[in-house]
Design a protein that fits this description.
single chain, mainly alpha, Na+/H+ antiporter like fold, 17 helices, about 75% helix, globular
Length: about 400
């Protein structure tokens, strides 16, 4: 069997597993499809089996993630996102660096890591993945404002986290420490790097997306619209990341927000645009399906068991760190705004921070020579599996306890 045929068989095996899981959870609103997929992947790993597919950083960041992000941005209600832009900005610009600092400091004590390694772990593991929890929100008809806030935070903090990660890796490769970043000049340099790389990527993507939307309004052929959206999603990423050296993830976010046919901010969606959006929904679903199965299978059951104590501790610290940033920052934002976020929504924001796709891509891209590399990979894969399985499966219970199993009236 040729290499291509073997790969195709492996992909079909993943989809066969996903099909069986889908049949199993169909009609069960309180069972998260993504959580079961990861659980099955872990079971495959525990049995010593393999799908024969290797997760690589390029596969995740260049093939799967642009499709997931572009779909997410084009389906966002931009009017609601804009109404909550202040909170999203605070959680991204203030919350993520604060969380990295808290978890980085805690990691030096809890795991005995040097500060640089501990900060690397924090930067890698803290980006959130909204896909799984948002699918539960849709099934249980949860407040759209809450869903938009969580998805908006995730889309932006993924890009900022990648910039911070790159900065820390560069510090490791140049001096092996963060001493240079701890000075006033070093901190200013980090802020400038985030602003230039992150902001530059977003603005580039926004320009591409706006231009594409102007062209899209003049196209009547459905396949032409589809091809244009593929060029926008992947072209903006490659142009930003590999040609201009700015954030590819934030470029896709900007492109999707400006290219999307949002009924609240653009003209009414045409029939061709609606059909194209359904294609992207399918592409995103298939991408996340493959990712969740492979993440579970790549966990490495033996490694997970060998590091069970630090993995469990890391998972608890990640949730505690999110709580330590979400509650005070949202409370402070409430004082400055006219539409406060209720306490029960803050609980969901804390519990709904699932850490899967981007953390796995980042930990796989760590250079050889990083101290504690094997343990870092075990911890990140372990936290990814635990967050999506435990938090994902318990999310319906949390929503039910908070009285959010149906629309709560917080949609605006």
């Amino acid at each position: 069997m040729s290499g291509l045929a073997a790969t195709l068989v492996s992909v079909l095996a993943v989809f066969a597993v996903a099909f069986a899981v889908r049949l199993l959870v169909a009609g069960r609103d309180r069972v998260a499809f993504a959580s079961v997929l990861v659980s099955v992947g872990v079971a495959v790993s525990a049995l010593g089996l393999s799908f024969g597919l290797e997760l690589t950083p390029d596969l995740i960041l260049m093939v799967f993630l642009p499709a997931v992000i572009f779909h997410g941005t084009t389906t966002l209600d931009v009017r609601r996102l804009w109404a909550n832009a202040g909170l999203v900005a605070v959680l991204t610009v203030v919350g993520l660096p604060l969380a990295v600092g808290i978890l980085g400091a805690a990691g030096t004590v809890a795991f005995g890591f040097p500060l640089l390694v501990s900060l690397l772990f924090a930067t890698i593991v803290l980006p959130t993945d909204p896909a799984a929890v948002l699918s539960i929100f849709e099934e249980l008809d949860v407040s759209e404002r809450l869903a938009v806030t969580i998805e908006g935070e995730s889309l932006f903090n993924d890009g900022v986290a990648v910039v911070l990660f790159t900065t820390l890796v560069a510090a490791f490769e140049s001096s092996g420490s963060v001493a240079g970043l701890a000075t006033p000049a070093g901190l200013i340099g980090v802020l400038v790097e985030v602003a230039v790389v992150g902001g530059g990527g977003f603005l580039l993507g926004a320009a591409v997306g706006y231009a594409a939307h102007a062209v899209m309004r003049r196209l009547e052929d459905e396949m032409s619209v589809l091809l244009l959206t593929v060029l926008v999603a992947y072209g903006s990423f490659l142009l930003a990341e590999h040609a201009l050296g700015v954030s590819g993830i934030l470029a896709v976010v900007g492109a999707g927000l400006l290219a999307g046919a949002h009924e609240e901010t653009h003209h009414k969606m045409s029939t061709s645009e609606y059909h194209v959006q359904q294609v992207w929904t399918t592409a995103s679903f298939m991408a996340t399906t493959v990712l969740y199965v492979l993440i579970g299978a790549e966990v490495g059951f033996d490694s997970l068991v060998a590091h069970a104590d630090v993995v469990a501790l890391a998972a608890v610290l990640v949730v505690a760190t999110r709580a330590a940033t979400i509650y005070p920052l949202v409370t402070a934002t409430n004082l400055a705004g006219s539409r406060p976020v209720p306490g029960y929504c803050q609980h969901v924001m804390v519990w709904g921070g699932l850490h899967t796709v981007v953390p796995v891509a980042l930990v796989l891209s760590l250079p050889e020579g990083v101290p504690f590399l094997g343990q870092l990979r075990a911890m990140v894969f372990g936290v990814a599996a635990l967050s999506i399985v435990v938090q994902g499966l318990l999310m319906p219970v949390v929503l039910s306890k908070l009285g959010m199993g149906e629309t709560t009236g917080e949609d605006d």
